[in-house]
Amino acid sequence: MVYVGIPKGQADQEEEVLKTIQDGDSDELTIKRFTESREKPGALWHIYAAKDTEKIREFLKKVAEEQGQENPVDHDPIHDQSWYLDRPLRKRLHQEYGVQGWAIVQFLGDVVFIPAGAPHQASTRDAVHNLYSCIKVAEDFVSPEHVKHCFWLTQEFRYLSHTHTNHEDKLQVKNVIYHAVKDAVGILRANESSLSRP
């Protein structure tokens, strides 16, 4: 989070932000960080374990049906980012499916790492719930520990409609694997003579 802009002369907005942080199920240390140290909160994240993805997907489809919405085959309630799980929905998700996430308030200067495939809260098609005007720098990356999961996500994206924003292969996992192997083979060849000595 590289910038958080707090409007001057709007004391009531601070109370609203505090209420949002509390309603977002943030822990006491985070609330104290805002109220006592006067740090600038930029965004509220809700991040869930990747292993709970199917349960969350099933829950969102169920809620959509209850509200009379369609669930087209080539769309996905998680990748569509069309839902914001407010407190009642988060509570219901926990009660009905045993799924509970983590509430993280990102303050100015904080970095948030999201593991591959971990569903995270969507608010009006943004990745997070913004508390104030803020600017963040985001970068997708593929770590060796999560290559398998990233590849699985890429396959999942293929089943979305061709007009879906996530249809394209953003992670380029096959290219990452190819270049990693190519570099490893190049290093081994360059050091082949020193590796073969007893």
UniProtKB/TrEMBL annotation:
GO terms of molecular function: chromatin DNA binding; histone H3K9me/H3K9me2 demethylase activity; metal ion binding; methyltransferase activity; transcription coregulator activity
Domain remark text: Leu-Xaa-Xaa-Leu-Leu (LXXLL) motifs are known to mediate the association with nuclear receptors.
Cofactor stoichiometry and binding remark: Binds 1 Fe(2+) ion per subunit.
UniProt keyword list: Cytoplasm, Iron, Metal-binding, Methyltransferase, Nucleus, Transferase
Name under which the protein is recorded: Lysine-specific demethylase
Cellular localisation: Cytoplasm; Nucleus
Signal sequence, start to end: none
Phylogenetic placement of the source organism: Eukaryota, Metazoa, Chordata, Craniata, Vertebrata
PANTHER family: JMJC DOMAIN-CONTAINING HISTONE DEMETHYLATION PROTEIN (PTHR12549), LYSINE-SPECIFIC DEMETHYLASE 3A (PTHR12549:SF7)
Cofactor(s) needed: Fe(2+)
Record EC number: 1.14.11.65
Domain JmjC: 1-158
Keyword Kinase applies: no
Broad class of the protein's primary localization: cytoplasm
One Pfam family this sequence matches: JmjC
Its job: Histone demethylase that specifically demethylates 'Lys-9' of histone H3, thereby playing a central role in histone code.
Catalytic activity entry: N(6),N(6)-dimethyl-L-lysyl(9)-[histone H3] + 2 2-oxoglutarate + 2 O2 = L-lysyl(9)-[histone H3] + 2 formaldehyde + 2 succinate + 2 CO2
Similarity annotation: Belongs to the JHDM2 histone demethylase family.
Natural source organism: Indicator maculatus
UniProt-listed GO biological process terms: demethylation; methylation; regulation of transcription by RNA polymerase II
GO CC field: chromatin; cytoplasm; histone deacetylase complex
